[in-house]
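Figure 6 in text form: structure in, sequence out.
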């Protein structure tokens, strides 16, 4: 039995429609407006979140970006986390200790001592463990937080094959 025997009697009963490629491009919309719909879920205003993201995207540390946005560093880290930026300050071992604390198996004092973190790192780790990023907000800041490939910044420091010949 060949393929023609197997396919005998098959017929197309419906047509497939070409829907094209769906594209949504909001890069022309200011970041503040893109974040406005998520303001109720963020620990700060949309304006402050936009200032934070812009400063952070320009290379500022979280502490410096927080100062630019006029907010505490822990609030800035929470905001960046909710917008999809990986800012978790805890090691895998510290996360397991935090899970034990959240389950009520350890006191806060013992958990902090075992984790070797300060109060703000502990608070941020607990926040991250108990909250999910806002998935719908991630596309709003993707273009602002994306890093463009600009070539190899160390290319002049490396020797080429011709240098050895």
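Output sequence:
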């Amino acid at each position: 039995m060949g393929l023609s025997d197997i396919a005998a009697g098959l017929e197309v009963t419906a047509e497939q429609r070409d829907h094209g490629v769906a594209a949504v491009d909001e890069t022309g919309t200011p970041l503040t407006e893109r974040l406005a719909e998520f303001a109720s879920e963020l620990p700060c205003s949309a304006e402050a979140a936009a200032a934070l993201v812009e400063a952070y995207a320009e290379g500022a540390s979280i502490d410096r970006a927080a100062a630019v946005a006029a907010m505490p560093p822990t609030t800035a880290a929470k905001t960046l986390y909710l917008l999809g930026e990986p800012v978790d300050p805890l090691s895998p071992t510290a996360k397991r200790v935090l899970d034990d604390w959240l389950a009520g198996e350890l006191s806060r004092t013992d958990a902090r001592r075992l984790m070797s973190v300060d109060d703000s790192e502990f608070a941020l780790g607990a926040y991250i463990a108990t909250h999910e990023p806002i998935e719908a907000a991630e596309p709003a800041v993707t273009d602002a937080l994306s890093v463009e490939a600009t070539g190899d910044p160390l290319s002049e420091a490396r020797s080429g094959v011709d240098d050895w010949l």
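Caption detail: The chain has nine helices and no strands.
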